Hints:
Layout: E1 4-8, E2 14-18, H1 21-39, H2 45-52, H3 56-77, H4 80-84, H5 86-106, H6 110-139, H7 147-172, H8 179-196, H9 222-252, H10 260-279, H11 285-309, H12 312-340, H13 343-375, H14 377-400
Antiparallel strand pairs: 1-2
Helix pairs in contact: 1-5, 1-6, 1-7, 1-8, 3-6, 3-9, 3-13, 5-6, 5-8, 6-7, 7-10, 9-10, 9-11, 9-12, 9-13, 9-14, 10-12, 11-12, 11-14, 12-13, 13-14
Amino acid sequence: xxxxxNRADRTGAPTRARGGGLAVFAVAFAFWxxxxxxxxxxxxYPLYGDAFGFTPFTVxxxxxxxxxxxxxxxxxxxxxxxxxxxxxxxxxxxxxxGCAALVFLLAQNVPTMLAARVVSGFSAALVTGAATASxxxxxxxxxxxxxxxxxxxANMGGLACGxxxxxxxxxxxxxxxxxxxxxxxxxxxxxxLGVASSGESAEHRTGFSLRFQPLRIPGEIRADxxxxxxxxxxxxxVLGVLTxxxxxxxxxxxxxSGHTPTGLVVFTAFACTALGQxxxxxLGPRTALPVACAGLVAAATLITVAMATATPTSLITxxxxxxxxxxxxxxxxxxxxxTRVAPRHRGGSVSAFFAIxxxxxAVPAIGVGVLIRQIGLRPAGETFGAVVAALALGVLISLxxxxxxTA
Length: 407
C-alpha cells in the first residue's frame, strides 16, 4: 500500500512525500533499466556488423541516431511529466525501452536497428525528467537519501551496467544477438509493472499540450554556461566515440574476440562520470571546471596513446579519467543553473544543457565514422583525441585569462 506523509520543507511551507520504499525502488529501477537499454547494444555492434555486413561508419550512425532521438524527445516532450503526471510518462518510457529491446530481438537489417535506436532515444528523453522529479517528490526534502544522488546512480548506473551486462551475456549465453534482448525485455516489463503499481507522485498537472521548446541559454550565466557545456560536451564526445567504436578497436587492433572487455571499458567511463558528479561537491566553483578541463586533456592524451600503441591499459585509464572529468564538468554546469538561474527558467536551461551534450554525443561519433572510412581506425582515433584535447585546452585557457565569471 502506498504511504503518504506530510512534512514541512526548510522554509516552513508544507510539502508531501509520497510512496514508501517499494515505490521509490520501482521508480529508480525503471530509470535504471531504461538507461541500461540505451547502452546495451554497444558490445554487440561487431556481431551485428558480421551478421548484416555493414561498415564501421554504419556503427557510428546507428549509435548517433540514439542521441538524435534523445534531443528530439527533450525538445518536444521535455515538459510532458509536468503536464500529465510522472507515472504515465514513466510507464511510457519504460515500455518504449521494452519496445526497443523487442525490435532489436527481431532485427534482421540496419533500418530495423535504426528504428530501435530512435525508440530507445525517446525512452531516455522521457524517463530522465519524469524519474528525477518523481524521486524528489517521493523522498521529500527530509530524506536521508538525497533524490539527486539516487537519480544520478540510477541514470549513470544504468548506462554503465547495460553495456557490461550485454557484453557478459554475449560471451557466456547462447545466441548472443538474442539472449541479451530477452533479458532487457524482461527487465523492462518488470519496470512497467513496478511503476504502474506505485501510484502518482505529482500533485499538480497543467494538462497536455504539444509544443516545441526552443533552446534557452541563460543570459545571467551565459559565459560560464558556454564554458561548462563545451567542456562537458568534449567529454560526451569521447563517451560517444568510446561507446560506438570500442568493440571495433578491441577486435581489429587488439584482436580481443570477447565482448566483455568492450562492456568493461564503457562501464568504466559511465561509472566514473557518476563519480565525477559527486566529486564536484568537494571542489570549489572556481576549481571544478579547470580540473575538469585538465582531466579531459589528460584523458584525450591517454586515448590517443592507446590508439597509437594498441595499449588496452591506456584505453581503460583514459576512459576512467574522461568519465571523472566529464562528471565534474556536468556537475559544475548544472550547479550554476540551479543556483544562479531564475526558477522559472531552470527547466528550459537544463533541457538546453543536455540537448547540447547529446548533440555532442552524436555528431563527433559520425565524424569519426567518416574518418575511419577515409584514413583508418587508429589515425581517426588519434585525430579525434587531438581535437578533444584542443577544445578542452581552449576552455582552460579562457578560464585562466579570466574572460568570464565562474559559477
